[in-house]
Amino acid sequence: MNRKQRIMLIRIIIAALLMVILPQFQVSGALRFALFMLPYLIVGYDILLKAVKGILRGQVFDECFLMAVATVGAIALALYERSGDYTEAIAVMLFYQIGELFQSYAVGKSRKNITQLMDIRPDYANIEKDGKLEKVDPDDVSVGTVIIVQPGEKVPIDGIVVSGESSLNTSALTGESMPRSIGEGSEIISGSINMTGVLKIRTTKEFGESTVSKILDLVENASSRKSKSEDFISRFARIYTPAVCLGALLLAVIPPLISLLLGNAAGWENWIYRALTFLVISCPCALVISIPLSFFAGIGGASNAGVLVKGSNYLETLSKTQIVVFDKTGTLTKGVFEVNGIHHGTVSDEKILEYAALAESASSHPIAKSLQKAYGGPIDRKRVSDIREISGGGITAIIDGHSIACGNDKLMHMVNVSPIPCHSTGTIIHVALDGKYAGHIVISDVVKPHSAEAIKELKKAGIAKVAMFTGDARSVADKIASDLGIDTVYSELLPADKVEKTEELLRTKPKKAMLAFVGDGINDAPVLGRADIGIAMGAMGSDAAIEAADVVLMDDDPLKVAKAIRISRKCLRIVYQNIVFAIGIKLLCLLLGALGIANMWLAIFADVGVMVIAVLNAIRALFVKNL
User: Fold this and answer.
1) Which run of H or E residues covers position 251?
2) CB neighbours of residue 504 within 10 Å
3) Which of 89, 162, 292, 585 is the most exposed, fewest CB within 10 Å of its CB?
4) Which residues, including other chains, have CB under 8 Å from residue 116's CB and lie 6 or more apart?
């Protein structure tokens, strides 16, 4: 409990004690009024001040105004009737402040939990100078600097381990409790906690571009993107509060006037009391507080599970997802390609592999890297000239004076060479030497361990259609789709084709169904931006993909897609529960107040009770571990 909350608690206790003690004194008139105004002002002076400031700023209709009018009206009524009964007015203010204290504590608690979950901001980076470690601001560390991370310290900046072995605690990033082992040559992301050995890391990014900075930026800015439900509540409150004020005024004036016209006693006091009760009941704080809190808690709970949602509007869209489209390489597969065979060679297998590796020497594509790794020899770029990349086909180059074409069937036909079909499953790289077919290389990708389970979980969650996009040959794509249980596969796609297919799916999908695209590469960024909801693989995904996406999965596990959808649906269920519950109880109590059945004591208990229940329900969105 912070200082402000402690002061409020003291004010509430003092006012409550005075409320119990003062009725014991047999005083009347001005002295009784003065004594009872003491607890009223102790507990409610800030509400009265806020109401006055709101009126002066032209922002009249809020909960402070409603409480001020209701309690001041109740005091005025007691003075008019000379009853000396000021306890109802004090009770209204007292219980309202108890409710406010409770919701302040609950909101603060949930914010604190979220802050702890995302407590990954490093305070410093260690740099070795003259044999001693010097702590510096991570912002001052340039790319390529070697930093040292000792056991128990946070990794401040993304980089590559140049020496040392250790286990990393990545729970704040991925939500996984199991430590990860790393060693020399391993990529390491900021925000992890080094658990055992001393690590020397060569930084690959500046602090502002590191994973930890991007995560903190996403979480800090998430609250600025409002959902439709939050916008609805804001619009509802703007219309609702003036409407109930007008309703209370009409309730205080119209029935007494009708009674007078009919020749009966007006009964002004009775109808004014009903109108004041009506105002107390109408306070919309349960909705205004609980709905944003539900989304805030949902985003916090998702962050704890390693799912970063950029705003409550995306959380709401994600909950309506019915179609999920996966990119293949790096999303459903590891993107780790291995050479599995060389067939139909007219020259030696070693020569075919050498030509292919040299031709692909300028490419950073995983297939090019797998060729270079399988070749294993030195890549002498001086031997290679006139490299040309044929979009959607492959590479042509001159190597040691020989014309080399390295790519798919399409490229072979472009260079007037007839490729020999391959019946093995995988990506087939055909190689042509001086205009003649030299053979082909079979390369296979490795499917991620949880990919098949991820598809099952999505279908269990009620996803109507799961599709896959890939640039691979149809045979390879169909085999992977069949193994994983994917409904529809689109193969041999260029980046532009993926956007076109996404547009087609968006046009043909049911009106209220949302389409989510899950990808990781830089060529996925246009599709991530075009889909209703873009989900990026964050830990190994490209910066462009993370920037374009609406949701980021921190551990690259496709199983987290289903979890993200379940989290969003739980959050939205809580939001709708609070909306229906709060509005339903309000309308019922307003009717009882207008009929004179509910008095002011019952009104304030109902108002505070609704708010407390709604806030407690909202906090449930934080707990997502077992989803």
Assistant:
1) helix 228-261
2) 11
3) 162
4) none
List, as one string, the DSSP characters of 524-542.
GHHHHHHSSEEEEETTTS-
* CB-count burial class (<10 Å; 0-12, 13-18, 19+) for 111: middle
Q: Which residue has the tokens 């291995």?
A: 338
Of 3, 8, 4, 1, the C-alpha closest to 45 is 8
Can you list the positions of beta strands (E) in 378-486? Answer: 384-390, 394-399, 402-407, 427-433, 436-444, 465-469
- Residue 410 DSSP SS3: helix
Structure tokens at 342: 């060389």
For the four alpha carbons of 69, 75, 78 and 80, in that order, the dihedral sign comes to negative
Q: In this predicted model, what pLDDT tens digit does every residue of 554-581 receive, in sequence order? A: 778 899 999 999 999 999 999 999 888 8
- Strands 321-327, 514-519: pairing is parallel
Q: Which two three-digit tokens encode residue 248?
A: 């209370």
The pair phi, psi for residue 323, each rounded to 5°, is -125, 125
State the CB neighbour count (10 A cutoff) for residue 488.
Answer: 14
Residues noted as catalytic: 327
Both tokens of 3, joined, read: 């200082």
pTM of the full structure: 0.70
Backbone CA torsion sign across 75, 78, 82, 83: negative
- Distance, CA of 515 to chain centre: 17
- Domains of the chain (ranges; CATH) run 142-205 (2.70.150.10), 296-334+448-569 (3.40.50.1000), 338-444 (3.40.1110.10)
Compute how many other C-beta atoms are within 10 angstroms of the C-beta atom of residue 573. 15
**Half-sphere exposure of residue 469, counting CA atoms within 13 Å on the CB side?**
25
Sign of CA dihedral 152, 153, 157, 160: negative
pLDDT tens for each residue of 271-327: 888 888 887 777 777 777 778 888 888 888 888 788 888 888 899 999 999 999 998
pLDDT digits (tens, 9 = 90+) for 396-452: 999 999 999 999 888 999 999 999 988 777 788 999 999 999 999 988 878 888 999
Please say whether the beta carbons of 87 and 37 come within 8 A.
no
Q: How does strand 159-163 pair with strand 199-203?
A: antiparallel
C-alpha 228: how far from chain center:
15
Could you give the 3-state DSSP secondary structure of residue 285? helix
Helix and strand numbers (H, E) in the chain are 20, 22
